[in-house]
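Minutes, methods subgroup
Present: GH (chair), OT, SY

1. OT presented the first of two proteins processed in the latest run. Sequence and structure tokens recorded below as shown on screen.
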Amino acid sequence: MGNGLRLGPILRHVTETTATVWVETEGPGTVTVTAGNRTASADTFSAHGHHYALCDLTGLVPGRAVEYRVSVDGVPVWPEEGSPYPPSLLRPLDHSAPQRLLFGSCRTPTDHGPAAVARYGTDMLRAYALRLAEARRGGGTAAEPTALLLIGDQVYADEIQQPMREYLAARRAGTPAEQHRPPDDEVVFFDEYAELYRQSWSDPDVRWLLSTVPTLMLFDDHDIRDDWNTSGSWRSDIAENPWWRPRITSGLGSYWVYQHAGNLSPEQRAADPVWRALRDGGGGAALDEFAWQAHREPDSYRWSHAHTFGGSRVLMVDTRCGRDVADDRARSMLGPVGERWLDESLTGDVDHLVVASTLPFLLPKGVHYLEAWNEAVCAGAWGGRLRGPGEKLRRQLDLEHWAAFQRSFTAVTEAVLEVADGRRGAPPASVLFLGGDVHFSYLARARARGRAAGTVIAQLVCSPICNWLPPAMRRMTWLAGRAVTGLGCRALATLAGVRTPALDWRLVGGPWYDNALATLVLDGRTAAVRWEHSPVVRTALRAAARSGLRPPVRELAAHRLTG
């Protein structure tokens, strides 16, 4: 039996002349990617018995799409024989063309059957893939995405589906039923994470999409565990579990391999100490050592990354692993290293400055002030006896977004206003925050209090891709977005000593609760955004699932942001 692909290929970091293709193979070997007259080969590296390669093609022509093929040890493995899909393409960036950035977060893999559709809704990543494949068969490629930004919860390590439950049960069969055995319904070890990624990304339609659209990624809490790094006490409590060390090392290590390595340019990867250790044969031991250090010392590694698309800069900001939550009175969303990197990256001299953070920077007003109030209470603003109940409420309601890190929120707000005022270079046409996590989508427009600025500031949220909220949660989030709720929570926060932010904002679109994908189009100084969904008619969706038809994709909302 030959050495084939276990997962991939996935098209990752792309520039005007380079493209990186990631694969996981069934065994050690040499992977070769061929695109036209360009070829790149790489030997696999190994971690915990799994084998990976990243092939970097160079010398590509900006904007010119070219078919590519993959072989392992000289044997063709992609495209698969008899594949019904159009050829996978490499499309280097063309900075002179409009940039179309597809983005979204929170995807639960399903079997797309009627029961799954009724519970989770249509998988918009799959629906988009089917539409793109159909368009390519018809020769239409003009409006294809420049890149896909997956900004959080690419996998759910703590909310697994039935196939993953069955895998864990079989893998752990015969393990002594100790008092503190790993949770039966959560992944813990590297092999389990590897299987979780395989199940999440091996859906044939999604696999083809990832093979042909450049993809950049960021983790959020469910990639590791719900409420990950919410607070110092959360970190202390979770560490009491004997399975936590293998869980966090496996979660961070697998994230580096499956998601983060492909975010890096070939030059950045060559300088990365994790890459060097793996290429030198350090294997699972080196990966575990790195991951444990990244958990224990968040400042030891920077997960955030920056990219250029046309005349615009996109910052992909880690808001999870780099957090400093040791002291409730001095919390930092980013930690010192992350704060410094983001502050240095928030500059003008671009058409648009895009800040992609898994967590929305601007929440509906009621939620924002509730989280700010809760942070103050947990820090002792209303006395020591309320800090414990405040922490309990923080965990129950997931009060852990930017608003719950007021020092960080204020610092980023001030930097953005300096960008808009032209104090950090020529002001961009817009500063746009991208976010996910909250399982509903919306558009918020913001302005500086007390002064005018020509730069548009807005929050664009697209969530979920496939994991819609139950009706009761929808009603709660709708209430949180009402103006009267915002006024009440603002009064509460003021009583706890929270200052009024220098930005004022309001929702001008949404909330929308359908599964969705959004497309941000940047064309010179013009910016526009469009959300797409499968209309929420559950009987129709179930009928489509039974018949095997392509789920309909329709425009949910569209807004011109600048120009």
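2. SY then presented the second protein from the same run.
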Amino acid sequence: MSLKFTYLQPIDRIKYFVERQLVKGAGYQLFVIVACIALVSLIGGMLLTPISTQEQSLADDIWWAFLRLTDPGYLGDDEGAWRRIVSTILTICGYVLFMGTLVAIMTRWLIAFMEKLEQGLTPVSVKDHIVLLGMSSRTVPIIRELLGVEANLNVHKKHYNGKMPTIILLAEEVNAIVHQQLLAEIALPHKLARQVILRSGKALQSEALHRVACLDASSVILTNQYQRTDSLVTTDVETIKSLLTINVLAQNTGHFPRLVVELDDVRHTKLAKKSYQGQANVVVTDETISRLMAQCAVAPNLLKVYTHLLNASSKGRFFLKEADEHQGKTVAEAKLFHSSAILVGYIDPQNQQFYLALGEHAKHKIVADDILVFIASNYNQLQSRQSPVRQLAYAKSEKGKTVATQHNNGRKKLLLLGWNRRVPNIIHELDDYQNESFDVTLVSTFSAQIRQQEIAKLGRFSNRINISLQEADYMMEAEIRQFKPEEQDIILLVYSDRLDSADEADARVLVGAMVLDEILDNYSKKPHVLIELSDPANENFLDQASTDTFITPLLMSHLLSQIALMPENQILFDTLTKADGIQIYLRSLKDYSDKEMLKSIDVAQLVEAHGEIFLGVFNGNSAEHPVQLNLPPEQRISTLANDLLIVIGNGL
């Protein structure tokens, strides 16, 4: 045993040395192979020396051996048995060393080099671009909205001298397959798809942020990913750490890019703002979606209006525009110069407030910093006329003439199926509606004791909220029937954030919705049903759903995209989703007139006289286009067609 070990030790040392050279990369591998070729050529030349003539030197024999080693075509030119034997051995070695190993090493090196390029490790050389930090469920909708909507392209071009927006996506894993899959999902024309550039890395790494030219970007978007609530390291923690990293880099250069930051928990807002010294629009998912859910639970069909307004591809949405051309005019005077768009109001960036173009605010003199808010079908409709449409006449809104907000004087029954961290916030937002009272039944397989503890963290509710906690599985028809869903006024079905993936969470919600449909199918009077989904891949479900359907990542993607283009959009939507203050309402024509049919221009005047602004109509009978905004002046609105007026006004 000892003799064998002693005999193999030198061989093992040589193998170890060769191994260490080979693992150093293609350059060292080539060096080893070249050394082997040189060694074989030397040996071949030495084997030929005994039969060589006096005119041939050792160098000539070595060159003869090298030629046979590298080119098999010389094999038939040799004469003599020994010369042919050596030539044959050299040719076989050439197949292995030169044509096999050497070509393989060079091929592997070329493939590795191309794969390295595909990973996007080279820093980009662009400016005024939009950076998306991290791949999430928001990524595809954001890219579609920023590049696939003409109105958004026009907004970006206006601010950056006609330059097309370039989107740099920072993802943990980048290769040709990931790139092609992303392009297939966004489904944009090739001209626009070329504006999407992928780079590999994490937002926590300084090198990765440098790779995407983060400090030279027009805006940087940090989105959240789907994550279980029991995770110790939440997405908010990673987001705040990324903010600290960006802040350190920005301090070194003195240039702070504008950030659009999505958080899950509102309690992390102050910490996030403290982590970054530049301008940062912090959007809290739980707060935003909870407000929207509460508002849409109180007002049926309002979600369809918000979905229409947030969807940038819709005809009729909010547009924000600088007020330079109207500086010195009042808001009412500026309104006369726009006949193709509805001037809804203005945003004061200094006070972070949105005001309607009504009453005293209509007499506000526009300054350079003001942002005008319009409802229009496209960006071209924002162009002002050379002369006013008509003479200025302020609408008189007499005291007590504002239409009262419709509400049920009795207590509404709310059946809330499922549980996630957002449920306590939803109930808290419902409690802010002073004219509403709710008997809330919370049904979930989650422990009632733990749910009670989570709800208690927000403090005590008013006597307008009465909560009952029940443990049951909403996927089981027999268990749901005991809560009498047919007698409820509102049913809210939310996805669970305790499951491993968004697919699993949505699967339970969709099955639960089918169970509800089966129960309610036999009843003529049905409650107002809202469901929440967590996967934007279920966007097609919106077209088929008879209920109000929230797809949280999709709604947040629309909002984040619009804030990235115009940060004042956050002020607008924050104002609209609060329980008090300015809100969007659905009203009947009978609330303003005894006539059953009126022209759009006449309705607008009636609504404004009541202290509100007319935006459009909602027709529940129309499956394809139930929401129509910024109507032509001559379009007729009829109560017989079940048209509801979409108006905006101050809440009571």
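Chair's summary of item 2: The chain is about 40% helix and 20% strand.
Next meeting: continue with the remaining queue.
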